[in-house]
Amino acid sequence: MRTEIDDLRALIRHHERKYYIENQPELSDAEFDVLMKRLEALEASSDAPIPPDSPTQRVGGGAVLGARIPHRNPMLSLNNGYDEQELKEFGERVRRLLEEAPTEYVTELKIDGLGVSLIYENGIFTRGLTRGDGEYGEDITDNLRTIRSVPLRLTETDAKIPAVLEARGEVFIPKDRLDDINVQREAEGEPPFANPRNAAAGSLRLQNASITAARPLDIFVYNLNYVEGVEFSTHTESLEKMKRWGLKCNPHTACHKSIEAVQDYYEHWVAERDALPYETDGVVVKVNEFSHRNELGATSKYPRWAIAYKFNAQQAITTIERIDVQVGRTGVLTPVAILEPVTLAGATITNATLHNEQEIQTKDIRIGDRIVLERAGDVIPKIVEVLTAERTGNEAVFVFPDRCPVCDTPVERSEEEVAVRCVNVSCVAQLKRRIAHYASRNALQIEGLGPATIDQLVDKELVRDVADLYTLEVEALSELDRMGVPSAGNLVRQIEQSKMAPVEKVLFGLGIFHIGETVAELLIEHFLSLDALSKATREEIESVDGIGPQIAESVVSFFSQHQPLLDKLRESGLHCFTVAADATRPEMSMVVDSFFGGKTFVVTGSLEGMTRTEASKEIKARGGKVTSSVTSKTDYLIAGEGAGSKYAKAVELDVPILTETDFFQKL
Ligand code: IVH
Questions:
Q1: Residue minimizing CA distance to atom 9 of ligand 1
Q2: Domain check: are 217 and 178 in the same one?
Q3: Cβ distance 24 to 248 under 8 Å?
Q4: Domain end residue (candidates: 529, 557, 587)
Q5: Which of 74, 493, 18, 86 has the alpha carbon at shortest distance from 262?
Q6: Are 319 and 89 contacting, i.e. CB atoms less than 8 angstroms apart?
Q7: Which amino acids bring their CB within 6 angstroms of ligand 1?
Q8: Catalytic option among 18, 110, 241, 286
Q9: Number of domains in the chain
Q10: What pLDDT, in 10s, does the model give residues 322-365?
Q11: Residues with Cβ within 8 Å of residue 156, at least 6 apart in sequence
Q12: How far apart are CA 515 and CA 452, in angstroms?
């Protein structure tokens, strides 16, 4: 018997589809909320179990986030083409391989987000995976469930709901929502996301699905990867059917009989893509007929039946009005070009980093220069060219300051590096950055301590070092701009909580030169406490595997100058001073693995499926060791994308190199 609950669930599903998938709401937000509230109330008062596909069950479910699951068939990538010639070559190759059979091409926008796989069993969304290494994906079911445009249950149509359906699509964040997320991140002391793609990727891999639920994620499904019991002959048919089942497909799809028509579609979107509310980085051209696709097949990397016809990076020309110098956490002075505001890829650009003094000299960048800015996916634009031909003679050569622009201390230049530093450890600019680093997510994770708050705390001299954070009280905090009693209370609680942080996080948070997360972990593994580390000699520190003389020098010099800070932190009640390191670190079950056990690894470059820290944890959990530099004692180098000098060193020393895929297989 159908009950009110069943009817209400069906009604809400209908309106979710209208609102989130078809963009044609039939109810106001308030009316929709009334329905949801009613359903929640009925479910709460009923004894019947709540099915996982009820519209109230978007957060929660209990899948193991991050578990590695094999894909039914590999999630391939796409071959790229960059101009009309390469598009034509693709068309010719397809026709040659299909022996001139007439071919239809479907064109779609290439959405710049994160590829995912959605699995429905008997119409219920049961599993969602990232692409991972293509063979294995990470389980992100619970995070995908929070996306309102991912139906938890497929809509019934005239055809039977398939027993199994696997669709692939792209999760993204609308362009105009990135700012909101970044403002919030900065308030929480987190670095902003460089582009919507990173924001989407970061949001989908969060361990806490309720945070994902608050992120404005959306999806376009672009391929029916597998279906049981229904036959399709073309891609267009499958897209139509997927839409009827309630999956969200991009509306700007077109079907063409010739490659020339594909070029027109591409040119249309070159001109119009800025107006789209999401980032696109090209057009995907796909052979429509499935029989043709099967005939064409795939290489190990990409299908022969499709190509990503990429858009060029967008450029704009503007003028450098002046060059400012910013002071970072370690005192490094970074020049920033302040630009005459210019619109680039739909965003207004007002400044661009010039990286360092040398960059200005090699590119001969002058104040007043006309320059070409380029934005390739990232929010942060690059100066790619100085238009020297446009110089009038009024341009001024920038003289790099000899004194810190914030505290006026003479700067230092060293032989070994390009960086110019302010060496005054009490420089307020550095202090502000050090506090931000201490509070950041990978260190003490004090949420709610953003740059605006830090500026005021330092300027009002409420905080002179990181230990002063522990003296802050609600009353003083609530008098800061844009801070009421509730947020002040919250911040004090967050600061209090940070006292429980594991010792390696505290060590990393101190911001000692050359001490990144991995090195902090290595040092703590060996010395167990900050006290022991602070008493260690240069030789003792250098004897730790993976620690070189530069790090040892940096540690010794830091602790020789900062004993008072350490004492202050101890008196503030930081947990790591009173318990042994092992007790503060979360339990990690150690299984000595036949491959990893007892071997020494170095991880370099960026991995697609996990961060380097996560990779190190996986290795250590299997009894392996992770060091930071490649030596003859290194057993394997794990090289992600952009691996550089460590890769070269490994080749030189004949150290075996594992790709990310090899590494995943070993795991
Ligand atoms: S089709 C077998 N269609 O681009 C490959 N991919 O660089 C099937 N992407 O991994 C891919 N929009 O994550 C396809 N309309 C679209 C797409 C699209 C974005 C992503 C996808 C893929 C990557 C390749």
A1: 110
A2: yes
A3: no
A4: 587
A5: 86
A6: no
A7: 76-78, 108, 110-111, 115, 170, 222-223, 284, 303, 306, 308
A8: 110
A9: 6
A10: 999 999 888 899 999 999 999 887 678 899 999 899 999 999 99
A11: 123
A12: 26
